[in-house]
Each structure stands twice: as C-alpha cells, then as structure tokens.
Amino acid sequence: MYYQYFGLTEAPFSIAVNPRYLFMSARHRDALAHLLYGVGAGGGFILLTGEVGTGKTTINRCLLEQLPDNTDIAIILNPALNAMELLASACDELGIVYDVDKHTLKTLTDSLHAFLLDNYDRGRKTVLLIDEAQHLDFDVLEQIRLLTNLETHSEKLLQIILIGQPELAQMLSQPQLRQLNQRITARYNLEPLNLDETGAYIRHRLEVAGMTSGRDVFPASVIRGIYKRTRGIPRLINVLCDRMLLGAFGCNKTRADQSMLNQAAREVMGESAPTGSAWHWPVAVAAVLLATLGVGGWWMLNENGNQQTVVASTVLSPGAAPSEVTRLPVKEPQTIVSSRPPERIPESEPVLEPKAEAAVALAVEPEVVSRWLLPPAESMAQLWALYSGQAVPENPCSEEVWGGVACVEGQARTWDELAGFDRPLLLDMITEERFSAAVLLLGLNGRSAWALTDQGVAQISLAGLAPAWTGHYRFLWHPPQGFERPLALGDDSVVVAQVAALFARLDGQQRALAGQRFNAALQQRVRLFQREHKLDDDGVVGVQTLLRLNEQLGIDTTAAAARSQLQDSVNEMVQR
Q1: Which residue pairs from 78-81 have beta carbons closer than 8 angstroms and sit at least 24 positions apart in sequence?
Q2: What is the distance between the alpha carbons of residues 256 and 217, in angstroms, rounded to a whole number?
Q3: Is 358 buried (19+), middle (13-18) or exposed (0-12) by CB count in 10 A?
Q4: With the C-alpha atoms ordered 386, 387, 391, 394, is the resulting torsion angle positive or negative?
Q5: Do the beta carbons of residue 447 and residue 348 sit within 8 Å?
Q6: What is the pLDDT of residue 576?
Q7: In sequence order, what are the beta bridge partners of 449?
Q8: Whole-angstrom distance, CA of residue 422 vs CA of residue 281
Q9: pLDDT digits (tens, 9 = 90+) for 78-113
Q10: Which of 257, 447, 523, 526 is most buried per CB count within 10 Å?
C-alpha cells in the first residue's frame, strides 16, 4: 500500500530476486564479467563467493539471462544432498531418464556422460549451477570434481558454477580439495557496497519502481545511518528501507528521518530501543488506515488552533522533484484547503529586470493578474495544441495516452526543480478569491519567467507567481508506443526496439544496438547518454531519460519553440 503513496508502481525494496532491480556497481560488473569469462572458457569450475545478502543470486540470474540459447542448465538450490542425490537431481534438471528404483553412482554418471556427449554432438553446452555450495560435504565436492573428467580431446563437457559464502573459498583451499581448487578457471568474491554505492543503490531501486530521481526521500544523513547499520549489504538495506518507507507512510511524511531510521533498525535488526517511549510503525499505519477508512482524510490543527482539511494524494506527495516517472500520468495531486485568509499577490509587471524583481512588494491589481492567470481548461487547450492536432480530450491527464500524447503530473517546492524541464509547463494556481486558475509557463530566466498572457507571450516575475502557485505542475510528451514503466537490462518488448531505434537515429546509425531484448550494448549507450545530460547513469530508460532523448531528436516541443509558436498565433489573431 505504501508504494502508491510515494508514486511507485511496486514495492522497491522487496527481498525477492528480480534481475530488473540488479544494481551494477563496479564490483557487481566485475563479478558478472568473471562469470561470463568462466562460462566462455570451456569447462572447469567458476566460483562466486560473497557475504549473505550481497547479491550473488541476483547476479547469477542475470548471468542465466545472458547465456546463449544453445545452453542447457541444471540448477541445484538445495545442496544438502549426498553424492548420489546430487547426481540424481542434476539428471532430473536436465531431463535425463534413469532407473529411479535401481540407480547407482555409476549408472547416474553413465547416463549423464551419454547426455553430455549427445549435447556436444548437437553443438549444445551444459552448465551445472549449485547455490549455497558452502553446505556441500567433502565427498560430494569430490564427486562434483570427477564430473569435470567428462571431456572430449578438446574441451570439458560440463561447466560447473559454485555459489556460496566466503567460507566456501576457505573449504576449497584445504589440502584434500586442492585438485578441485586447481580446476577453478574464474573466481570472484563479491564485497558489500561502499557508502556512495549504498546511496546510488537506494536511488536505483526507487527509480526502477517508478519514483522520480530528483526526490530526496532518503536524505544524505539518513543514508549514512543506513550504511553504518547494514555495512552496505543490499539485503539488509532492502529490509531497512522498506520498513522506513512504511513508517513514513504511516506518519504521513514524504521523507525519512533519523527517528524513523532508529525505529526501523530496532524493529527489523533487533537493535536495543532507547529509554523512553517510542512510536511504533504498526500503530502509525493502523491510525492512517482507520482515518482513511473512517473519514476519507486526515485532520490537523494549525498554529492558531483552526482546523484544516488535507485530502491525501495516493501518488505524488509534496516535494517530489521532476525526474523518472513510471505510470503515465499520475493521479490528482495533494490539495490543501486552509482556513487562513488568502495572502495578497505581489505586484508583477509583464517584463522585469532581475535586479528590480527583489523590490517588488506591492499588491497586484486584478486587471494585471488576469493577464497571466488563465482558466485551467483554456491553458490546457493551448498546451495540448502544441503537441497534437487532435481535439483536446475531456481528461487529458488521465492514465490514457491520447493519440501518442501523454500527460505527467508532479509536485515541486521550488522553481529550481522546474529548471530542468526545457518544455512548456502548466502550473496550477489559486486566485486571491480562491478560484482555480492556471499559468502556461514557457521557460525560466533567472528570477523571471515567460508565460502566455492575454496579450501574448510576456516575461513576468517569479515573485508575482509564487504566492498563487500550488506547487503542482503538468506537462505533455510523446512516449514510445506501449511505454508503461522504466526499461532495464534483460527486458524484452517492442518498446525496447523503439528506444534502440531512437538512439540509432540520434547517432546517425542505420542499425540499432538492440532488437526487442535490452542488451548490454544498449545499456552502455544509455549510460553514456545519461552522463552527457547529467542524469543518473544507471542504464535504466525511464521518463527523464526519454524526455531528454525526445528533446535531442526534436520529438517534443521545447519551451523556446512553444514561445515562438504561441506568439505567432497571437500575432495572426491581432492582424485579423
């Protein structure tokens, strides 16, 4: 439930193995490279070790997705077996037929050898992957070593991958297992994340789940605390962050803080509670659920003791910064109806020099305000016309894509958060009389902005806009057909092919780097593009990456183009 509150499509910190969430730190890339090299080396053993929760299984799932189609693989997840049971399990995984009632080590080995020879003749490879291999007995490890004796004159017939905790490497270093240890062609010990990687890992998982990359749900101080408690182990990070998001949801907050970190650590990691009373997440969540079900909202008291009603948003909460967004578009924003009298809107002239804007403090006359405060429907119609020749739909910011045009909604607290958008934005405003209005923003310029007024495009003071702005904004764009969520390595869809074609068009290449499957080549190209445009270079194609790509290709209307187009329209009307 909490992930909807943060505008996510799914829980980002599930401990279930999902290759789509694979965070490729430098050490994870090295681990995967070692595994791929070992598989291509043609026989022998590959060893991957690492502490519990560092991501070994996830890396191996990623490896399996990159193995060629001519590979048969047997996966042993429960290594608490004797030698005969392990051989039988391998035969079962590979579909090898044997006498279930009268099998022996010899008959099982003979059946496996025949299968491997047949696979070799058909140009196929065979891989045996054993997880949690530190639990294997010495005699089982010796039997596994003997399997590598199955070979032709040129290569081994069976490739064996051993995955385990660091004590597995210690086991293999013992003298009685030296023959097996010498046959390891690739080995890698996966270390936990460092502090910087911990922060990047948290942001990566949130963005894959649909959160905008600019949102600061976990401040730097909180991330340092998470790293200190988890020592950079991804599984522990997942458990702790999941509980902290649940706590933030229960307290109706948009950011985690130190108190939430301390409470989450006590609940999920067994840390001792400090003296005094503590606020428990279950109580907070229960309170929110009861309030939601009973009255449909939360009630608060302001500093004067007056009540104000808060209608809760289920998707983007205040403070969300513009970046990667998953579902298109999000639902209605959070709206606050206060009992306080409305503030006067400072005076704003159509054009103000930046130096003079700080001195603006007078009230705006109604006839001046009306120049740039337009009816919401009229503003949306003007914005829609910049992106589509079709009639504006009744609800353009529903979850539909209308004629290839989609709407994205967000919430911001500062003008700086809008500066990264080089496109027209529709700002939700409230008039002095508390009526809904809108401003069609056509770019920022220091402490002023361009906007559409009743007399054409004009430059107005941000100081004049700020008191009436609710913080809610919308914009339109052209997503690839069928795009619904961020795309990552391993995804397979027609949307991947469209994205690859866009990058080929950008690079002036006739052949795309990928087809329908998101491969490593496309991921590397995405990362280079993200670095060039100062985005998080995670290789995941989300809304922010596609927005920049559309801007580079001229697919979406830029703010400057919108100013020119709207001013031309106004001039034509005046001439008529």
Answers
A1: 78/132, 79/130, 79/131, 79/132, 79/133, 79/135, 79/136, 79/140, 80/135, 81/140
A2: 6
A3: exposed
A4: negative
A5: no
A6: 59
A7: 444, 460
A8: 41
A9: 778 888 888 998 898 888 888 888 888 888 988 888
A10: 526
